[in-house]
Specification:
Blueprint (H helix, E strand, L loop, with lengths): L4 H15 L20 H15 L3 H24 L11 H10 L4 H25 L2 H20 L4 H9 L10 E4 L2 E4 H16 L4 H15 L13 H28 L1
Antiparallel strand pairs: 1-2
Amino acid sequence: MFFELDTAALDAAQALCVALPAAGLPAVLLRFAGRGWSLVAPLSVVATVVAITLVSASAEVLTWIALLLVPPGCAIALGWAAHGARPWLAILTVPLLAAAAAAPDDPLGRVGRLALIVGSCVAVGRLLAGAAPLALLKAGVYAMAAIDAVFIFGDFFGEQNAQFNAAAPAGLPRLQVAEVGEVSTDYGDFFVAGLVGGILAAERRPQVLAAVATFAAAQAFNQLFLVVDSLPGTIPPALVLLAFELRERRRRASRRDYRLREA
């Protein structure tokens, strides 16, 4: 049986991305809502791989983008997007970023990095779930997981992934990847979990239950580490979303059947 504490810690952080997003979108942002936002998830995977494959220097560009966007995203989560958020909590992003910058590869710096990444994914999950049709957003989650699986299991992304993870913005923290011990998880794995959390929040589904299910699914999925070296971390949250969707459809079918019998 495969179990590593470092891997489990990253899986728990991914589960938090499912549990934490709240629902809703500020009225000022509603004018920007539209179907196009549902393409963000699948296109982000393809665009990253293509960019790094065609231009190796793009890994450096992408890591700078992460450095510029992840801390504000975490501040948005602490101040508004997460369950229990308060505006004054956004200031906590500063010590998290300071810890990540002062000692990026020390335990404290890695915790700061992980917290920033989780927070930013919570914010993105809530924003996208409020801006895009949920049906299309779910399709985007499944597409992202499928594309990720093809790249990982087909070993098409090994070199590009190594370049992406190793890229560092002039010695500053690498906010495109989270690390615990010798184990690392790409931003995209947390991103899809935050997206699942945002969808479930918008539909008023039990997010804590979904988070526990995500962690459990990840532990079951991790057994494949006994035979492979790398796994697509987008699969467990996508499977949990699918399971919740199927359960809801069965409930609706049962209610329909009951009404027909009563009639």
